[in-house]
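Bench notes, bay 3.
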Amino acid sequence: MPALTTYKARHNINPVHHSERRITPMTTQDQSQDIARIFALQQANQWNVKASSAADRKAKLAKLKAAVEAHADDIVAAVREDTRKPVGEIRVTEVMNITANIQRNIDNLDAWMTPTEVTPSLNPADRAQIVYEARGVCLILGPWNFPLGLTLGPVAAAVAAGNCCMVKLTDLCPATARIAGVILREVFDENEVALFEGDVSVATALLELPFNHIFFTGSTRVGRIVAAAAAKHLASVTLELGGKSPVIIDDGADIDAIGAALAGAKQFNGGQACICPDYVFVKPEQKDRLVEVFGAKVKENLYAEGSINKEGIAQIVNAGNFSRVKTLFDDAVAKGATVAVGGELEEGDLTIHPTLLTDVTPDMAILQEEIFAPLLPVMTYDKLDDAIDYIAARDKPLALYIFSKDQDNVDRVLNRTSSGGVTVNGVFSHYLENHLPFGGVNQSGTGSYHGYFGFKAFSHERAVYLHQ
């Protein structure tokens, strides 16, 4: 696959519709020149796009939704080729989630674009407004774990807010990047939305440009690189990162329901989700039942015929990540962790069986690094404050999960910890509810999106005072 696609009339400043593009190998110099050319086109066109009406933007979004629906089978095939995800998961996360997100923007855009009237304190006879204006030319960098859903979602928000954007998917999902390119070329001219394929050198070249806003989803390590690049041009950023998302199980909580929920969460996308539970605090007297239920649910989900159904769980994305996870697992076992459930890591096809580890201790690497795999360490605690203090002393996670029937205990956890979001007595729900902002805090991210909050992420709140 060529490192980066190119266009007819590469050096012609006039915009070329993506559908006319041809694919040719490019040198590094060609890549940089083509990126700069398209960036110049989008800079020149941003004012036209900013001035577009709600009707104009909704028409583009409707066309994008139709293109995703038309290519649904192609999307499933591409993501399967890249990740071996279960087909049902792909249709939910990489097709249905995208189209629902686009439709949400269409349904609400008129209201979102309406200026907010403010009664002036200087002179009530005057007028004052908060106007939501496009940020300008944006860069969207997508991840590998949900390569299309977590890229086209931000694209829809950027378009709804009236921006131009340049888009780069991870090179770990080349088939998905190709179908994303097909979809976007059908809908947009390159002077409004352009997608780039290729390796890290393409992302590096993009980050050298003075974008108005950068939206990045990925690891905290790379997030720091993106933030540093943005700072050179004082670009605003939305950083959707990750971290070690804890689970606290309180006295009296329903262990049977919790064990089943945690088993499903760690099976989902092979545990490769930024909000996946990363470690668990449970009372000593609850631990054995948690192990029993987790193991039974994993068996029910994946081992109906005795051996694991590999069509029911995604593989680890590549050999490098498999090796990283195996190192975490081996270190924990060597330092005394007990493999209570699972423990099989099949390097040949990058399959890791859902695994529960007990007797883990803070000195183990598995409690220091984000796992991003279907491994779940379990620690016991005596007092709620012990679990709270452990969490509060570490980087702020993207998600925090509390299982409790005691509202005072829930409030105590909320008041003494910080995280991007929280779900009480469940998993993932704060992410799935699009009326809530989704994002991290400090080490787990900057800014938020989803629904109205996505529109706001790609908008500048402009103060306008009108003397009468």
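Next record in the batch:
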Amino acid sequence: MTKIDRIETTLIDLPTIRGHVLSMTTMMVQSIVLVRVRFSDGSVGLGEGTSIGGMSYGAESPESIKLAIDTYIAPVLEGLDGDQINAAIDAMQRAVKGNPIARCAVETALWDGLAKRLGVSVAQLFGGPVRRAMPVAWTLASGKSETDIEEAQAMLENRRHNIFKLKIGKRPVRDDIAHVAAICDAVGDRSSIRVDVNQAWSLSEARWGLKGLQEIGVDLVEQPIGARYREQLKALTDGYEIAVMADEALQGPEDAMAYAAGRSADVFAVKIAQSGGLKRGSEVVSIAQAAGIGLYAGTMLEAGVGTAAALQLFSTFPELDWGTELFGPLLMKQDILAEPIRYEDFSVHLPEGPGLGAELDEDRIAQFRRDRGAQVAGVAVPGGV
């Protein structure tokens, strides 16, 4: 039996290439929790837990993810059979309520370790990839129309992205629509334009917003109102031709079932972290497929490890109607992978190799780990690598 010997966590702070403006915050740094699961045979699995904008986005922060793993998850899993991932998932769910990102980070490392021991990719453990390249969106989130237009044009010229998502909701609705209209006028005939409101609008604002966005040719609007207002999101879904996508509302299969039963959204943004892991994420996808709801591979702005994990899973689904937004590593000034994920020809490409296909650049990890001062001084850090 290959036992789980030790679970280690490290906080990594990665500066972003520019301010990433959301309705609730502006990100200048993305903080991740890097997870290493060490097994009794010497193999090591990698995982990543990442939130967006600290706790302004959701209930988990990088610090709480690390705490949940170190204090509650690791003691329950250490000593268990590392090959029995379903048993580990069950143990985590019984020991820790909520905390889907923390659970996903550890589960990812378990899948990575198992696949490496078997000499196959994580995708193979979910039935094998049906695609090795997936359409990938880029988020325009400087908050300035001129800057966003220049950025979009550069992406089109370099053939890196032809799907653009705009972060809006911080300004009055009419100002947001004017901002989006300027970008649609500049690049809309060469790309798909979508918007993400991150729950910022009231129902009345959303009605005006969707009407205006539909008129200027936007393809999709993501989570325009609060996640708890399912009936209101359904009303918007039923009332407009523009596609309405649920994101923050989907916190796992139970939420997916409720939204599918009421046909409360046209599209599901499926995030492995928000779903509670790759297995639960695959269940959310299955529910969407059974209900005829469109699929979009969402991101928590993960760095390389978390993005590789999502790519492994989403490569196994024949239908991915709305593509992906798995661009997280491109938002960071430095990549933490020895071999960065490949982005070209308007697609993101599945990493090759066993497990996640992701190996760390240990020098970069040492450079950006939050406890690097303590490590240099020789101070032991609990849970640290």
